[in-house]
Amino acid sequence: MALYGVLAVVESGGGLYTTPSKLEPFIDDGRLVTISIDLTEDSPAVVGLDQDVLREEDVPKLGYSHKSSGRGAKYSLTQIGSKNGNDAEGVSSTILGRIRSWTEQDSVQSLTGENGHPDGWLIETLAEVFEKDSKTLEALEENIIDLLPADESLPYVMTIRLKLDSRDVESANATNQQWFYPAEIGVLEEAMKRYATANAADKNIDKGSSEGQGVGVVTGEEGRVVGTPESPLGVFSVKHPDAQPGLLQTESWRHYPVSDDVAMLFAKGQDLIERCVYRNGGMETYALPYFAGEMTGEKAHALYLAIASVDADREVDESADPPMSQVTFHLTENEDEAIRELAEQELRFYTVSMPISDDKNVVAEEPAASIYWPNVLSEAFRETVEGPTLDLSKGGFQAFDKWPLLTLDGTDTMQKRRLAFMRITNHEFTDAVFAYRDDEEGDDFRRIVDHRLLSGTPINVKVLFEEYLQRYADAAEDGELPPHQIVVQQLVHLETLSRAGLLEGIDTPIEPTETMTSEPIDTSDIAAIREQRLEAFLERPLFDETTRKAAALAGVLVGQISWHQDSVRGVGRPLDAGTKGDQLTKHGLENALTTALEKAKVYAQDSDRSFDRDLLFPETVDQLLEETEALPTEWDIDKRELQFCYVLGHAHGRRSMPVAFEMYDGDETESPEAATVESTAN
């Protein structure tokens, strides 16, 4: 947070407290109104009121410090009006009123008195000159109206010029001059700093303040520290004492000691930090980029440009492009080879997720996430989407638009990898397959998983199966079967994690092997298409284990018979309507499987199509009988593992005939149109 404050200060061209860049809209087009006050006599006297065009050379001596939030007086004695302009009345009442208000601020007045600054008397004198309803102030108001054009609105800056005997002022920057502007008097600069950092000591504290002598957590130096600085993340705040049991607000400086300068850096860096947050689903995830190792000018410049380039509203393929993705590719695809190398070697992200609410508890945190694991995941994701899983000719499923894990549009590998990286960092990779959660539960668990993946921590397969089946249940509406794309996305998700080495708790890889056989499918024969696609679907290590394969084959057969009942026989309640995958038990599967085997024989007798023969879907029945002689109630398999293998097989089975018809290029009598005629006849 302090680093981002430094970047913001450097970019603005100003100091830590002064913000001269904020006066740029006033230069040449605006006017500088100067109130001259003589403090060399027994009593202060306003001896001049002048106005002139504001020039660039005037800015350094004004010591202007901008207060970005809220209206009212700015931090410095120099004050401004609207950059769109004020008339004479507005200058007389509003801008002059801000100078009066500045002299009354408690933080400014803290420099007066016995324990104050040696030159605190200057502040007391200014407060006297600008005292509310005083004759001096009333005279100034009238003189301003007389001096400025009444019917013309101009941008105005107002400042004070003091005539001093430098021998009487310890904090005067020079000894050979009579007239001093705010930036040339130390006590006025110190007052400006006190005003600017006042909230860092008393924010959200009704009585008293939090300040003391200690070692700053950022600087490591001993000195004045405060305990309630402006925190861009909102985590370190006395606003939420319920999250910090036993915290005494006025003693918070002991727990979180920050120097005045660092407190100011926190506030300065807020705009940059805001660029690095991604919000969705009731959660906000900060991904703050930085470079490992010693900070250099080259690193700082590259980091600032990368953060500044982030567009919070940027979308790709109708998906949000989160800051982590934009920063990563800004640096790793930079035109400068040195920047690209730096990014590959040293780019890190501090990531933290919190609820979007007053409850600022940290849900998940990773202080040093590198781009290694997101890159590994995105490449594994790309390989999965382009592999046999979504290749119909290899027993896979179809790619579908609008389903984030089923398509990666792009003209080359790099574009697809970038889109995959984006899907991972904008939470789609997790949200697309995990269970929905209500408002009270929030997305805490999903974000914890995201953080684990970004740091390279494997996920247990039992957790995934539980989430997958819950999401499957969520997607079922009014008793209807969930879209099969839900299951396909989950398979892509599972294979991606397996490819990336981020899956544990299972004894085999999930993804198909690179050496899997894939003979050209005979598209002139419906039965051959089904049989060859089924063999390719099962040719993956997940199904090397007999029970998993049997569970998948059971799902395939129930899906095939149910499709036949729906599309050919017009059965109102097909078999799978009463065999919900997320509620499946071994006993229920045994009943469904027994019914499916019976129907396969009975329905074949009513069909005269060549591919039905004496048994519907014989390729599935034969494989099932070959794999196991035991009934499902005797299978040794975890419930969720059984259910997932079943719904995966069911998704294939339900699409077995429709895909075969899509791929078929033989006789018209075997076409889908023929199936419609037969359905009508039956």
UniProtKB/TrEMBL annotation:
It holds the Pfam family Cas_TM1802. Keywords: Plasmid. This is Type I-B CRISPR-associated protein Cas8b/Csh1. The lineage of its organism: Archaea, Methanobacteriati, Methanobacteriota, Stenosarchaea group, Halobacteria.
